[in-house]
Amino acid sequence: MSSSSTGFESSGYWYRPDATRIGSVDVLNLLRRYRSADQEMRRRTRDSMGMGETDLLALRYVLRAEREGEVFTPGMLAKRIGISTASTTVLIDRLERSGHLARRPHPSDRRSVVVVSTTGSDAEVRKTLGRMHRKMIDVADALEPQELVAVARFLGGMIEAVEVSDAGEHVAARETGDVPRRTA
Fold first, then answer.
1. In 3-state terms, what secondary structure has residue 60?
2. What is the pTM of this model?
């Protein structure tokens, strides 16, 4: 089996390419290919749903909050995405007009509102991404427990490696909602 048919492309800097040996460069190249494929999938999803990148990101945060039973306010959305509250208002207005989000009264604070997805937006996301997510879960489910531990350790290390800023501090990941404050 050649290295090109497996998707592994060893640099061969020190050694001749060997299809039976996977090195760190091969793994990093595969990770880059995955990131590229993921970015392309997100572009296709945005195009098929008629949304921009920030729109889709906002919808993902709202859907996640709903799955977790979290009350989600416009301010929380602004913080997660890392945009101003004024920009968040424009974003929510746009997603309301497109039928993806709605504002509702806050359940415990009459002065506030929450942002919720519409039934149609949840169904649209599931239809658009459901088959791909099922395939991804199937790939992970096919791994042995010790392989899952190794993959999780590797990906956790990669996350740490790319979250380190030039100053040597950890930059909080947007996925957790800990967006660093911008200073002028």
1. helix
2. 0.63
